[in-house]
Design brief:
heterodimer; A: mainly alpha; Arp2/3 complex 21 kDa subunit ARPC3; 8 helices; B: mainly alpha; 3 domains; 2 strands; extended; cell membrane (chain A); Cobalt transporter CbiM (chain A); CbiM/NikMN (chain A); transmembrane (chain A)
Chain lengths: 203, 235
């Protein structure tokens, strides 16, 4: 979920960049040097997973999985997503440099919320139904939180002029909202079957 | 020898500053003039470097599908007289379109020929914390590894006749594919940890600003100042 360059005013961009710097600073402080390779690999895995498309109607949507990333990375999602977003700007022209801070907050803050609310449950052994609920919640909070935050930022920046844009943003993300929840639940179930130790690597 | 201004890390900084500056411009005539200038410069550079123009044109068209959606959303409104043009909305859509295209051309112009290895070099020259630079280098390296694995899985699925559709089977297969990527990531970490241990390597925990006990206070006070700033900006 990217807010494109040119939509937000400089004041909002600077606020977003400052918030992002704080988030990245906390993320780096909470990540030990020993954990850097694991963080980098999860960041890379989520970056690659984000390129997988799911057909919806005549088009397709790509996975976001920020909620899942939040579960596995905790506060480290800030530096991890910063790198992913920077690569997306340079190689795919998604988002932009000036709006990088805002987009980082949009993606990473809901992920941190997922970590704070649900992270501790991954340490316990969970039944199938609870894993599904956990995965679906991570997907819904991740994408839903990102859509809500992006809407709030647009409303803060443009006021009434952007209300129609906000509607457009929410409508276009409804399929992602459901698909991310379903896929996140499926991923947790598969991991629990194939590599339960991986679920305990959360920070 | 290229001037220092064209070094990759300076190009990254300029692109960021230019993006911020363009976002502050409110005058469509200014934006249009700058867009024409930047697009012409980009065209000259692309032709001189023998880049495929069709590729850039196609990407610009895809990018502008989004601006089309913005025009479709903002250019009309429902009033007492029924459906009518929304002049203020059209002005906003025009500003957004011009800014978006100007920034796109700026990014393409300044970051032309930027590969992942040049990007890694550029980032390592920026005044950033060591940990972030390490994380960046590792992530770029692992993206190419896992990207290759992802491509192989996609090929294997295709070879077995799998066609993604909006159904339960597709969701299940995609969930397994993401899980396998994560498991592969974990296996890679274990392998590299074993290799590092075998070589007697230990991560040096270099002291940085981030590790100072008072840094947390700086983070909290900046966050508080930001919240106060947002509150006043909204009033």
């Amino acid at each position: 979920m990217h807010i494109s360059e040119g939509i937000l005013h400089s004041q909002t961009l600077i606020i977003g960049a400052t918030a992002a710097v704080i988030g990245v600073s906390v993320g780096l402080r909470k990540t030990d040097y020993e954990r850097l390779p694991l963080t980098a690999l999860f960041a890379a895995a989520f970056f690659v997973a984000g390129t997988i498309h799911v057909p919806v109607g005549i088009g397709s949507v790509h996975l976001i999985l920020n909620g899942m990333a939040g579960l596995f990375l905790g506060w480290a999602v800030f530096p991890a997503f910063l790198i992913a977003l920077l690569l997306q700007v340079i190689f795919f022209s998604f988002g932009g440099f000036a709006v990088l801070g805002v987009n980082l907050c949009v993606m990473a803050l809901p992920a941190v919320l997922v970590h704070l609310l649900l992270g501790r449950y991954l340490q316990q052994s969970l039944s199938r139904a609870r894993l599904i609920l956990l995965g679906a919640s991570a997907g819904v909070i991740g994408v839903g939180g990102a859509a809500l935050l992006a809407s709030l930022i647009l409303a803060f920046d443009g006021g009434k002029a952007y209300y129609d844009l906000i509607r457009l943003l929410i409508v276009t993300h409804i399929p992602v909202f459901f698909i991310d929840g379903i896929i996140s639940a499926g991923v947790l179930l598969t991991l629990n079957k194939m590599s339960p130790a991986l679920l305990r690597t959360t920070p | 020898m290229k001037p220092a201004i064209f070094q990759p890390h300076f190009r990254l900084i300029f692109t960021f500053v230019l993006g911020l500056s363009v976002s502050a411009i409110q005058n469509p005539q200014w934006l249009l003039s700058l867009l024409c200038l930047t697009a012409s410069a980009l065209l000259v550079v692309l032709i001189r470097q023998g880049k495929p123009l069709a590729f850039y044109l196609r990407r610009a068209l895809i990018f502008n599908l989004f601006t089309l959606l913005i025009w479709l959303t903002l250019s009309w409104k429902i009033s007492e007289n029924g459906l009518e043009w929304h002049v203020a909305g059209m002005h906003t859509a025009l500003l957004i379109t011009l800014r978006m295209n100007l920034i796109l051309c700026t990014i393409w112009l300044w970051l032309i020929n930027m590969t992942d290895s040049i990007l890694v070099q550029a980032v390592s020259k920026l005044p950033l914390p060591d940990k972030l630079i390490h994380l960046f280098i590792l992530t770029v390296r692992y993206i190419s590894l896992l990207g290759e694995l992802n491509r192989q899985m996609a090929q294997a699925m295709k070879a077995r006749g799998f066609q993604p559709k909006f159904n339960r089977r597709t969701f299940s297969v995609i969930a397994q594919r993401v899980a396998l990527l994560l498991i592969q990531a974990m296996v890679q970490v274990e392998k590299s940890e074993m290799a590092l241990k075998a070589r007697g390597f230990r991560f040096a925990s270099r002291s940085s600003l981030l590790d100072k006990p008072w840094w947390k206070t700086v983070e909290i006070s900046t966050a508080l100042l930001l919240i106060i700033g947002i509150y006043y900006a909204q009033r």
